Amino acid sequence: MERVIQTLRRVVPKKIFRAVSPLYHFFMAFWAALFYGFPSRRLIVVGVTGTKGKTTVVRLLHHILATSGTTTASLSSLGIRIGDKEEENPMKMTMPGRMAIQRFLHDARRAGAEYAIIEVTSEGIRQFRHRFIKFQGAIITGVHPEHIESHGNFEAYLRAKLDLFWRLPKDATAVINKDDGAWGRFAASTGAAKVFYSASEVAAGGKPILVRHVTLSRDGIEFDLGQETIFSPLLGEFNLSNILAAISFATARHISLRSAASAIKTFSGVPGRMEFIQTSPVSVVVDYAHTPESLRSVYEFLKNSRIKTKDVKLICVLGAAGGGRDRWKRPEFGRIASQFCDTIILTNEDPYDEDPTVIMGEIRSGVAESVGAEMILDRREAIRRALNSASAGDTVIITGKGSEKWIMSKNGEKIPWNEREIVREEAGRVFKK
C-alpha cells in the first residue's frame, strides 16, 4: 500500500494529493482498527511523545510495570516487546503504520497484556496513526524544533503533539514535563488527570513530582524523591527527566514509589543511548543524539563529568541526516560542537538522496575557526581516526546513529550498519597496539 501511495505522490498534482491524503490516512486508521477488532478498548494504552527521550521512557515504563508483575507490551523505534518476547523493529520508523500498530495491540491483548506503551510521533499523528486507539495515558517529554520541513512550522509541529493530549478521555492520565516551555499548552489541552514532573528542585502548581539532592556522575544518577533515595545506572540530567516521566505515570497508576525505585535500579539502559562501549584507557561512547538539544546535553554531561585535567580531550564524531530534513540544524550542530569538543570529525550519517559532503560542509559552516573540523566521508574511517587521535583519559563520543541498523542512502538503499559493533571492532584494533 505504501508503494501505491508513493507512486500516486509522483503522478498526482501536489495540491490534489495534499487535499485527499488526510481522507486516506483517516480511512486506513479506521480500517486497521476495524480489521483487528478495536483491540485498544481492552488495554490500557499509553502514548509517549516528545522531541527526545521517547524510547527511553517507553522502555523505563515497561520495565517498571513488568517488574511490578503487570503483563506489559511496548512498541518503540528499537522493537516490539510483548511480555517476555521481543523482536526488532525492522523499519527505520519510530511509529509504524496503522495496520502494524493495530496488529501489535491485537497481539498484546491476546497475550494477556494489561498495558501497551507506544512511541507516538508528530508525523504519525499528522497521518492519523493514533486515531481509533483508545489512549488512557499520555506522556510528553518536551518539545523542541524538529521535522519543521514536514510540518511547515514549529507551531504546527507542537499542535500535532497536543492532539494526543486533546483526545484523552477524562479518566486518563496526562504526564507533563514542567521543565519544558510548552508545558502550559499541554496542561490546557486536556481534561485528563494531570501529573507534572520536574528535574529541578522547584516547580509551582498542579501535582508536581519533584526531586532533591541530585547527584550526576559517570556511575549513574542518584536523587531523593519523597521518602525514597533512588539510584539509576543511566547517565545525565536528560535521563533524570526520563526517569521522572516514567515514575510519574507508574505511581499515578498505583505502582508504589518503592517498587518503581527498585525497578529503576535494575534498568541498564537503552542500546545506543549514552552507551559506554569502553572506559579504559579511553572512554568511547555511542549515542543517538540527533537534535541540537540532545547533542548539547550529551556533550555537556561528558565534558563536565570527565577527569579535570587540561590535557584530557573530548573528541566528537558527528554528522546529520539528509533528505531535506531540518537543514537548519546542521550549522547549529557545528556551533554546539565548537562549544564542547576539543576535536571535531564530521562524517556521513543518513544522506538519503543528498550529497553527504554538502551535509558535512553545512555542519562545518557553524564550527568556530578556532576549533576547526576534519571531514571524513567514510563513517568507519572517521571512527578509526577519532580513536587513533585519543590518548589515555580522553573521551570519544560518536553521535547520530545509536543502535540503528542501516545507513539510509540514495534511491532508498539501506546499507547495513551496526555502530556499536563497529566501534568495538575498531577500538579493539586501536587499543591493542
TrEMBL record:
Domain named Mur ligase C-terminal: residues: 272-402
Cell compartments where the protein resides: Cytoplasm
Positions of transmembrane segments: 21-38
Entry keywords, A to Z: ATP-binding, Cell cycle, Cell division, Cell shape, Cell wall biogenesis/degradation, Cytoplasm, Ligase, Membrane, Nucleotide-binding, Peptidoglycan synthesis, Transmembrane, Transmembrane helix
Pathway(s) where this gene product acts: Cell wall biogenesis; peptidoglycan biosynthesis
Predominant location category: cytoplasm
Domain Mur ligase central, chain residue ranges per copy: 48-248
Cleaved signal peptide residues: none
SUPFAM superfamilies associated with the record: MurD-like peptide ligases, catalytic domain, MurD-like peptide ligases, peptide-binding domain
Pfam families: Mur_ligase_C, Mur_ligase_M
GO biological process, one term: regulation of cell shape
Gene Ontology molecular-function annotations: ATP binding; tetrahydrofolylpolyglutamate synthase activity
Gene Ontology terms: cellular component: cytoplasm
Gene3D superfamilies, A to Z: Mur ligase, C-terminal domain, Mur-like, catalytic domain
Domain of life: Bacteria
Family in the record: Belongs to the MurCDEF family. MurE subfamily.
Protein name per its UniProtKB record: UDP-N-acetylmuramoyl-L-alanyl-D-glutamate-2, 6-diaminopimelate ligase
Species of the source: Candidatus Adlerbacteria bacterium GW2011_GWC1_50_9
